[in-house]
Amino acid sequence: MPGAAGCVATLLHDAAMNPAEVVKQRMQMYNSPYHRVTDCVRAVWQNEGAGAFYRSYTTQLTMNVPFQAIHFMTYEFLQEHFNPQRRYNPSSHVLSGACAGAVAAAATTPLDVCKTLLNTQESLALNSNITGHITGMASAFRTVYQVGGVTAYFRGVQARVIYQIPSTAIAWSVYEFFKYLITKRQEEWRAGK
């Protein structure tokens, strides 16, 4: 049941966040013509239609599932190594969380590169003998390879890893802290009965 809940949560989360990601990435592009979020939303809607906000949805899902799988497996593996008794140990949670996020981010960077291309429809890629819009993950993978070869799949890997390290370290340490507090209170409550 938790696995099914996680899948549904990811589907809904990504459905809500994908349009926001498209707008964010287009506004972050070098020489972006957009100065306000509303300008970007309006232009994308009028010029490309509603589908432009979901062009990378399947790629986003395809990226998030492996990211989370690698992230959780790495965290659990490292916890077995650093904290085999599974006690509350903030330093092991921070270290394991940081490393798990770094590994997952690095491993899924090619998917993130393709998602970014789908979201931004970057003109460099579009001007390299490719006609129309890039649609779908297979098209994005081909385009990235045509434009930059294998190394293009890992552009931005350092930034992605650096971004994930504190994020996952904080998330795991906060999760483990609250798990510890709740468990401790439940044990105290049971002992007081």
From TrEMBL:
<keyword id="KW-0408">Iron</keyword>
<keyword id="KW-0812">Transmembrane</keyword>
<comment type="similarity">
    <text>Belongs to the mitochondrial carrier (TC 2.A.29) family.</text>
</comment>
<protein>
    <submittedName>
        <fullName>Mitoferrin-2 isoform X3</fullName>
    </submittedName>
</protein>
<keyword id="KW-0999">Mitochondrion inner membrane</keyword>
<keyword id="KW-0406">Ion transport</keyword>
<comment type="function">
    <text>Mitochondrial iron transporter that mediates iron uptake. Probably required for heme synthesis of hemoproteins and Fe-S cluster assembly in non-erythroid cells.</text>
</comment>
<keyword id="KW-1133">Transmembrane helix</keyword>
<keyword id="KW-0472">Membrane</keyword>
<keyword id="KW-0813">Transport</keyword>
<keyword id="KW-0496">Mitochondrion</keyword>
<dbReference type="Pfam" id="PF00153">
    <property type="entry name" value="Mito_carr"/>
</dbReference>
<feature type="repeat" description="Solcar">
    <location>
        <begin position="88"/>
        <end position="181"/>
    </location>
</feature>
<dbReference type="GO" id="GO:0005743">
    <property type="term" value="C:mitochondrial inner membrane"/>
</dbReference>
<dbReference type="InterPro" id="IPR023395">
    <property type="entry name" value="MCP_dom_sf"/>
</dbReference>
<feature type="repeat" description="Solcar">
    <location>
        <begin position="1"/>
        <end position="81"/>
    </location>
</feature>
<dbReference type="InterPro" id="IPR018108">
    <property type="entry name" value="MCP_transmembrane"/>
</dbReference>
<dbReference type="GO" id="GO:0015093">
    <property type="term" value="F:ferrous iron transmembrane transporter activity"/>
</dbReference>
<dbReference type="GO" id="GO:0048250">
    <property type="term" value="P:iron import into the mitochondrion"/>
</dbReference>
<keyword id="KW-0410">Iron transport</keyword>
